[in-house]
Task: structure prediction
Amino acid sequence: MDTALAALAEPVLALAMRAAGEILRIYASDFAIHLKSDRTPVTAADLAAHAVLCEGLARLTPDIPVLSEESAPDEHPQRLSWPRLWLVDPLDGTREFVARSGEFSINIALVEDHLPVFGLILMPVSGAAYWAWRGGGAWKLVPGSTPVPIRCRALGSGPVRVAGSRRHTGHLLQTYLGYLGEHVYRGIGSALKACLIAEGEADVYPRFGPTSEWDTAASQILLEEAGGGLCDGARRPLRYNARHTLINPDFLAFGDAGHDWTRYLPRRSPPA
Result:
């Protein structure tokens, strides 16, 4: 177990809880909604959490740069030369925040040599937190309790439990689900989909369509340490800060790593 990574859990959780406090303060108000240049929404909660997390991480690890969803596009032109960085989504699921569904999260990941080695996901409304580090397993904390280890479930008989987006569906997803066969679909927001898989409450999350690296890095290490994974259509784990774009390819997040979840991908013939 990497003790340096293990030592990050407590201070990063405390930092995420501070950011959650800012998010909830604004969530309880009559907040304004603005559109960024890519037509995605942003609120004062995104920006307040961004400020807390970037300042706090810079204090915690002064030698590791921070790249957040709310960073200015030209703020880090030299990022591809960084061997380590924090990838942060201060408010994953802004549309769920606007809809007041409660299904939004704070995502924080430490990336080394293009792979996530530590990740933490906090649900501000419920207060539930999930975290993992390389070689240290995956953990969940519910307010008022102590952290417990979590594990993906082995795929058994019965319908496959699919976690998916409420707002991003389409032909590719419907085709994948058709090839998958008997399943139960649960639409849910933000990184909570990966958290459900990591604790054995869902089996797979197929994602077709654009996401960004800060959306998935924390989920990837959480799933890997829980016994699952997050990969592209060629069964390769996603890599981070390795390309000029920060947009991910289509991916599959899954629990049972012994099952080939790519066999249902629409580009292939239906499985026998």
